[in-house]
Amino acid sequence: MSEGAALHALHVLHEWAPAAHWRAIDFVADLHLAAEHPRTLCAFGEYLQGTQADHVVLLGDVFEVWVGDDGRELAFEHSLLTLLAAAARARRLFFMPGNRDFLVGASLLAELGITALPDPCCLHAAGRRWLLAHGDAQCLGDEPYQRYRTQVRSPAWQQAFLARPLAERIALARAMREESMRVQRERSAAKPGMESVVDLDAAACRALLAACGAREMIHGHTHRPAVHDLGEGLRRHVLSDWDLDDAKAPRAELLRLLPDGNLHRLTPQAACVAAASGAGTSAGAAAGTGTA
Ligand SMILES: [Mn+2]
């Protein structure tokens, strides 16, 4: 990260806290929901209805693609928004944009009862700070992507894009997606065995953690669930993506923060099981991967 970018992050880092007496905060990212993934949508709906968490934080790419809020009446988009609005009535729901759904508008979220979160932001909970991000902005090794990101996040580009007819935007988004998949394929062909998606830059993460006053970062985007040691007691917790329509490797996980400061990696099913008197530790044990 350039000095300028680090300084910028320092100035704009938004800080927020859960409601008093909160019980559990779930972090979910990279659902990539689309009509072609009915099982994933169904699992997400069941999870939203049944999760024992009173706060659910969506950390980007909930939607496979979002080309503008005027697409809300399309059948799939409409059913998904209905599901999110119902969830937001039952618990506190937060939405951070990802690289697929950054065009979801602030007024639409407000109407659904969902709180918008900027990327990155700083959560103050369990007596410490947690840096939350989608993760794509820290993938600095992918320079073409960062140039593309700067372009599509600019108000001028967004205004011009949103001025196009809806059908045209849908077609454009599809073309952009195919182009990005082509680039990824080329990259894996050029360097066999290398990951096709560039990982987050460690220095950029450390700079953001410092700006947040946090030791732990939670993010998605790379679809490579893990806990990374960033040195000096700093850690990066990576969320899983969700794809239950992939017959070969069905996957869906989330991270749950409890008031004792422990993070637990849970399946959506485990997240819906009421914890015995042990304040959620049994749910963590059920998934077998408590990370604290
Ligand atoms: Mn992403």
What does this structure look like?
The protein is α/β, with parallel strands linked by helices and 292 residues long. It has a single domain, classed as Metallo-dependent phosphatases (Purple Acid Phosphatase, chain A, domain 2, 4-Layer Sandwich). Helices cover 38% and strands 17% of the residues. Strands 1-6-7-8-10-9 form a six-stranded mixed β-sheet, covered by helices on one side. The chain has a six-stranded mixed β-sheet with strand order 5-4-3-2-11-12. Strand 6 and strand 7 form a beta hairpin. Helix 1 runs parallel beside helix 8 and helix 2 runs parallel beside helix 3. The longest helix is centred in the middle third of the chain and has 25 residues. It is globular and about 50 Å long. The C terminus is likely disordered. Bound molecules: manganese (II) ion. The site of manganese (II) ion has 7 residues, from loops.
